[in-house]
Amino acid sequence: MSIANYHTYNFPDNQCLVVCGDIHGEFNQLVHKLCVQYQMRNTTCIVAGDCGFGFEKKEYYENIVRRNSKRMSEANNRIVFIRGNHDNPAYFDGQTFAHKRFLAIPDYSIINVCNHVVLCVGGAISVDRSYRISAWEQNIRQHNRFGHSIDENVLSPNYYWRNEAPFFEENRMSQILAEYAIDTVITHTAPSFCEFQNKSGIDTWIINDPQLVPDIHDERSTMDAIHAMLKGRGVTHWCYGHFHHSWHAAIEGTLFKMLDIMELYEIR
Question: Do residues 122 and 83 lie in contact, with contact meaning Cβ atoms separated by under 8 Å?
Answer without folding.
Answer: yes
